[in-house]
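PROTEIN DESIGN WORKSHEET
SECTION A - STRUCTURE
LENGTH: 332
TOKENS:
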């Protein structure tokens, strides 16, 4: 079967054939794409679930167990991986293609495969599927079975997230240097953006890890040895990435706590200054208020030097209060 995949990365609309296919590949025994469909060892077909033709084609596929067909056509967003009647099938998360969305978003890949056929379906273009498609087209790596190609899709997704964690680690290094070097003003926004990225990655990794551990524990006795090894490798890789994600999250939280502590210390310092100023100015305010009353009997009214006497007295009282407050603050 000829390749019907879109060839341009910058295309904004996937090209669908009359069967609702986004792409279809035939693989020879050596694991590389072939145009000789008659001698193909196995096939990969990727459908768009937003196209009615693709859904009808999946419904019409022969020798497809009902439970597998239900997985591919399910209308909800339930995630799972199961093994039934020789088919490993399920729905997992993947990041949407960077050329089809402005913000980072999670999409869903539905898949089912046996020894000779891999069927995948999605509502939105997915990054890992397109990355593996390019690998197939450019003949960079052989895929001798559907399980190898599906493993490549999941590994691609995990590796991309691992690369994101490395970049986030470098960003946290820069933020930490700023905080330790007392140049932390303005780092709060950077740290907030980093934590938002970490939440996205952690949710994605935790989901994939949980699904792989589920199928490993629940269907280990049913899976063929080769497929069992594949699931085990993927589970170990995702668990390791999950631990890395948790460590980076813990580090980000510690930096946020330290940043909050510095903000609190600065706020306390400013409040202390304001408290000292308030204490110093309070006696002067009271004295000026008393002498500002328009009533008889005020002292120094007839004394030509009365203003200076009151001013000097107010200054002396303010100085005494200032040193008293400083001494109390020094003890604390």
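SECTION B - SEQUENCE
RESIDUE ASSIGNMENT:
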């Amino acid at each position: 079967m000829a390749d019907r995949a879109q060839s341009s990365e910058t295309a904004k609309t996937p090209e669908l054939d009359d069967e609702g296919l986004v792409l279809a590949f035939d693989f020879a025994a050596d694991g590389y794409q072939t145009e000789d469909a008659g001698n193909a060892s196995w096939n990969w077909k990727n459908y768009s679930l937003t196209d009615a033709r693709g859904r009808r084609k999946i419904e019409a596929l022969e020798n497809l167990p009902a439970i597998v067909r239900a997985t591919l056509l399910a209308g909800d967003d339930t995630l799972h991986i199961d093994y039934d009647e020789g088919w490993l099938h399920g729905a997992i998360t993947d990041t949407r293609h960077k050329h089809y969305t402005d913000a980072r978003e999670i999409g869903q890949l539905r898949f089912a495969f046996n020894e000779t056929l891999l069927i995948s379906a999605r509502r939105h273009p997915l990054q890992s599927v397109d990355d593996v498609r390019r690998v197939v087209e450019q003949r960079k790596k052989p895929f001798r079975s559907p399980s190898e190609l599906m493993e490549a899709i999941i590994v691609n997704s995990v590796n991309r997230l691992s690369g994101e964690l490395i970049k986030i680690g470098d960003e946290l290094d820069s933020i930490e240097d700023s905080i330790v070097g007392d140049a932390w003003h303005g780092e709060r926004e950077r740290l907030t953006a980093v934590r938002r990225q970490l939440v996205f990655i952690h949710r994605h990794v935790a989901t994939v890890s949980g699904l792989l551990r589920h199928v490993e524990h629940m269907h280990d006795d049913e899976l063929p040895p080769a497929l069992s090894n594949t699931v085990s490798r993927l589970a170990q890789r995702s668990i390791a990435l999950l631990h890395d994600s948790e460590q980076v999250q813990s580090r980000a939280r510690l930096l946020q706590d330290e940043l909050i502590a510095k903000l609190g210390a600065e706020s306390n310092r400013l409040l202390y200054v304001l408290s000292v100023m308030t204490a110093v100015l309070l006696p002067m305010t009271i004295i000026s208020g008393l002498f500002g009353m328009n009533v008889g009997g005020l002292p120094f009214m007839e004394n030509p030097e009365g203003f200076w006497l009151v001013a000097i007295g107010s200054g002396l009282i303010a100085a005494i209060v200032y040193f008293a407050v400083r001494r109390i603050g020094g003890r604390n």
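SECTION C - NOTES
The mean pLDDT is 84.
The longest helix spans residues 225-291.
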